[in-house]
Amino acid sequence: MMYRAFDAQSDFAQQTRNWGRMLNQVVSPWAGTPFRDQANWWSAGARMMMRAGLTFARPDYGIHSVTVGNREVPVIEEAVVATPFATLLRFRKDIASPQPKVLVLAPLSGHFATLLRGTVRTLLADHDVYITDWHNARDVPLSEGEFGFDDYVDHVVRFLETMGEGSHLVAVCQPAVQALAASAVMAHTKNPAQPRSMTLMAGPVDCRISPTSVNELATSKPIEWFEKNLIATVSDRHKGAGRRVYPGYMQVSAFVAMNAQRHSQAHQDLFWHYVSGDADKARAVESFYDEYFAVLDLTAEFYLETVKTVFQDYTLARNALTYRGESIDMRAIQRTALMTVEGERDDICAVGQTMAAHDLCASLPPHMRSHHLQAGVGHYGVFSGRKWEAQTYPLVRNFIQSHA
To answer: PHB de-polymerase C-terminal domain: which residues (predicted)?
Structure first.
């Protein structure tokens, strides 16, 4: 019933967008007349209507070229291997000199991996970049089976094996946990494809440290509450009909609620940008929310296992993580160098939570470790924006190259 109700709401949002387009077509011709002020108001309202609701298809990465050295090089998206739940996507460049291979682990938390396009674009100048391009669970047929915590780890291992020896991991937010797990699994099995380095950026390794509102929510209810109240069954109109999921719209709603005033103000500003004709400022707000309101569903088993394992039982933080029923010890990681990055103002993953990975990876010598606290940034500023490009990225680049 929950999913059907949301489908009905989505249908209404689509109608609202249609009405907005019709209204905009009617008032646009009046923009150059003596009635332009009134036309601008009506047009602004119509364009706001055109943005109603969420979208459920992956946006484009939009990375068509990158500057390498002193020349502009075309970038081609290449699907290297695909499973029902994800694609290993490569941003291929035609250059003569090989670059370090980097697998960017995108969070599976209600947004598409395209949320990291800025991270990828920055990395591309100096690296051969791949990314975990997650699929919307509501579009995966039930016959394809389940996808849980261990399945994410499986994907990391398989993708690293596909990329070959000498690769590096860059995990953004949530998958810092799976990056550690996969590295430990590959160390235990002496897998030759275990990564040369892993960079964990704003990841919830130990949520007992300076708990945020996100952490407190996870511990305020038993896991049964999350299953009863936040899990829905995909309706018959979608390919994944019958699959139990944590809907992306719930995750985005929770994020919006955390900063409701800021998001409300942003949309008020967008309306006035439309009215005043400030196209550049309007485009900047549009671009952010086009991505932010593009959502995907998570499988119920992955969501519940993550909440239980990472945020309630602190299994990784206690070095008690298991994989396929077997214990995995983070101290087995001896060949994979570790860098952690945190943001001074991060209100999602607090300072200290990611750095805790160094205590877990106790077998690594000092020269294989690095930590960076980026001043003046929140969660998203750790891996995107000007300070990421100018201050954090050069350190990440140098760390990868020193262990290549």
So the answer is: 202-403
Cβ proximity of 103 and 170 under 8 Å: yes
Closest of 235, 239, 292 to residue 262, by C-alpha: 292
Q: Report the C-alpha gap between 81 and 87 in whole angstroms.
A: 6
Q: Where are the alpha helices (DSSP H) in 67-148?
A: 117-124
- Domain ranges within the chain, ordered by starting residue: 1-53+248-293, 65-222+298-402
CA distances from 150 to 42, 132, 253, 296, 339 (A): 52, 15, 27, 20, 23
CATH architecture designation of domain 65-222+298-402: 3-Layer(aba) Sandwich (3.40)
pLDDT digits (tens, 9 = 90+) for 210-253: 999 889 988 999 999 999 999 999 999 889 999 999 998 887 77
In 236-368, the DSSP E strands lie at: 244-246, 298-299, 322-323, 326-327, 337-343
Give the tens place of pLDDT for each residue, 121-168. 999 999 999 999 999 999 999 999 999 999 999 999 999 999 999 999
List the end-to-end C-alpha distance of the chain, in Å, as a whole number: 52
Instruction: List Cβ neighbours of 178 (8 Å cut-off, separation of 6 or more).
Output: 105, 149, 152, 153, 156, 171
Picking from 243, 3, 293, 5, the residue whose alpha carbon sits closest to that of residue 137 is: 243
CA–CA gap between residue 132 and residue 112 (Å, rounded):
10
Q: Read off the pTM.
A: 0.89
Residue of 37, 90, 41 whose CA lies nearest to 61: 90
